[in-house]
Amino acid sequence: MKIDANDPRWTAYALGEIKDAGERAELEKILQESEEIRRMVQEIRRTADLLNDSLKSESPVFLTKAQRNRIESGVTNKRAWFFFRPVWALSGVAALLLLILSVWMHELKTDQTVSGTLTADLRTEDAVTKSESTGVEPSEMDVKKRAPAPRTAPAAVPPAETPGVSATVPENTTRGGPGSDASISKGKVPNVELATTSIIVEGKPVEPDTAPVPAAEQTPESQLPLPAAEVPDALALAQAAKSTGEGASISGNEAWEADQTKLAGISADQVDVQSDGVISKEIRHQEGIPSPVKLNPEQVGEIKLVIEPVDAEMGRASGQMQAVTGSGFVSGLARGRGPFPVPPPPPLPRRPDERRMPPLQGDGPNTESYDFVVDNPFLETEQNPLSTFSIDVDTASYSNVRRFLEGTSLPPKDAVRIEELVNYFDYDYRGPDDEHPFAARFEMAEAPWNPEHKLLRIGLKALEMDAKERPASNLVFLIDVSGSMGDRNKLPLVQDSLRILVDQLTASDHVAIVTYAGTTRVLLSSTAGDEKWKIHRAIDSLRSGGSTAGASGIRLAYETAQRNFIKGGANRVILATDGDFNVGITSRGDLTRLIEEKAESGVFLSALGYGMGNYKDDTLELLADKGRGNYAYIDTIQEAKKVLAEKINATLISVARDVKIQVEFNPAHVGAYRLIGYENRVMPKEDFNDDAKKAGVIGAGHAVTALYEIIPPGKPVPVSGVDPLKYQKPLETTRAASGDEVGTVKIRYKDPEGETSRLLEFPVKDSDGKFSRASRDFRFAASVAAFGMVLRDSPYKGGATLEDALSWAKDGKGPDRYGYREEFIRLIHRAISIKK
Amino acid sequence: MTVKDPDWIQSVLARYEQPLIRYAAHITRDFERAREVVQDTFLKLCRRKSSPEDDHLAPWLYTVCRNGALDVRRKEKRMTTIEEAPLRQVPVMPEASAALERNERLAQVLDILGTLPANQQEVLRLKFQGNLSYREISRIVNLSVSNVGFLIHTGLKTIRETIRTRPDNKVARRGK
User: Fold this and answer.
1) Is the pTM of this model over 0.80?
2) What number of C-beta contacts closer than 8 Å exist between A and B?
């Protein structure tokens, strides 16, 4: 056999890779006979050695110390909890303050019979921010250190920021109440949001000796102060409570004897805990804060802390605190998220159907709306004929989910907001053909994941605006240029985004750039859109570095916007950050108030998230909400193009705001219904007609989709039955119910500058259509919803699987002009392969 | 030694940290990203219930590292600003004249390596920096053993011939 000198086997031989003895013998035979080949083999070996040596000579590149630490700690823990910044390790402790509620609630010795909901929101500032924010004026600074009050509380747990604290969640605060259960489920450490130090507890216990107030009448503002300084001690109380074995009883703790009923709260963004009191609505309360809603301790029997790790790899989780009433009704209380600093205590049993309890909406007299992590459940039409929610055009969740999947991990469940996934795509809804700024289009067919059920799709399509028709824009980019923004997927991508935007601008537009890091500066004063060279030069000069202690960054941005205000134009501050938006106002309450004020004066705020993942995601969403703008997460240049070029009109121009939807379902056609997604947009029915209650914004050309899953009457409903009422007659339907309407969709909106809302009403006919006959858009939207439900592992996903979502998406793909649907299909593939 | 043993992890780190980072870097074209990828690789190792057996460890590490690096590169590709991070660092060697020559020679080899097509580079690094066998390499990069052999053969041949014809160190950089 003659083997060519060029045969790769010679190299293999030279490197000792010929394992087969027979083959080797053959080769050696040829070697013996050929001088040329012998020399070649020698050369090969020499070259190999040389290559070996040169590779060795490359200077060593090591992992950073932080990275090594993470690996080493990854070994010692069962799960690798790692965090963005090591110092956060301690802030998790503060989250345990949620437990305060359990302690206090139980102490209420009152026979008032008000029921209500308890919500608590806990945020805390981490020590890092504290050390970095040297430039912040003291008056704006939230208390970063909660110095332990010199109280005689059994100091079972040291205050929040003492290093070395191990945040152990007290195992349980069980109480022998009806339906009570091990309180802390899963034993995971709650997360703490890195914002201001405030504890909000909505709903509240009542003063011990107040005269009983009948349920019908509630005094909204009963004062129950929360001594700020006592906050850290509440943790001690929880510990004490636990150790006394009395569940959440705080008797026996002298520190509380004098003022047991100190529990109150307003929503998180209105309260700040400071070292010398609590500030709410500009008023400093030495003793605490008033709370709007009363709670009946008899009813609210038990507070549980339910914590779920959202993503072990990312070291994040969310916590939810729930109040369980005497009758076993569960309502969500608080939500927080953040990193895990410590290994979790062992998991505890949890009531199996706890997540399926209906939310408080439509039930009871309280009027708070709050965040839920649990999916909207099915609601029986008889008990809850009205479904009310605010629209949402944010798409950040989709980018976020995409980022996880492309990083080959499944996204955390609460990162998946189904409505944002569905709304990421364009649908062919016809725009308005009357004087209204948007049109509503409906379609109904069977639900593909459960053919016994139907799916109702509501589509809103806003007025398109031609590029030429776009009113002049006055934009101020507020850019985080702190050190952390140096990553490739952050500042450089911001720069690319700006470049894309600048391309769209004309002479009548103005753009300015304000940066914030250690200091704040106006990098580019308001410049006409056609002076592209000047603007590009400023963009090119963006550099990261410095701490994130902003000094009035946002005020400067607003001032700049105000100074160049264009009447009738689009005036916006666009915040670009990786989550660390210390824009000079560290009090979150103050920040949101400022943003709201400015929005009312005509300068809106939009938020663009870069490289921040899940963290701060809901804060940015909230700020954009208050700012009447939108929130997008920009993870790729394509996304930047989408948001800042293709959808620029939608991003910059609102055609309607405070857009709310209220659906009245017809019990003759709908036994029960479920709103898919929009969990944190759901509103109490009273808020629909209350113009003071804010809602979402629709931009020019935006399409918004909402999906309801409908169970026809007579079919089984996964809801515990409600007892028939003793004092009211059973439901009597009107004439309208006997028609063929499945329901009526009402929409309220305000003109962008208006203060009074307008009402639109659309009766919607029932339909029995088969899924396969529904429009492509309908089928595609359903596939996205199914995908979201599977990722959330929703109890309502029916028979849906990822493979199903894939096939529905493929069927519904259609022309897909920009390739977004194709990308989604790829994502499903990814998810499928990750799950394997 | 189990995954839970910190000493074991240390020894694995000591042995593989360098070559893995280098390997990842040539895929991600960026040391920062490469370090992240390698960190994640080791973290995944920690998370495994049992450690791969010794002779499966290297291929496992390289495979996981490779996948991570490719993912990063796929994402980075979407961005227009891609910095060209210098991949080759100046060799650190004593300054004797013979050594100087050798230095230059080594530098030259690295240069040539840098001009080879990506798949050859990858496979060569796996072989000569990772010290993996053809079989292990074939599993990591999803090619047949003979494919791998061919790539290595061709790569070495190019290096060999380039040194022979250009002893003066000047290597034409192929535009990428």
Assistant:
1) no
2) 157
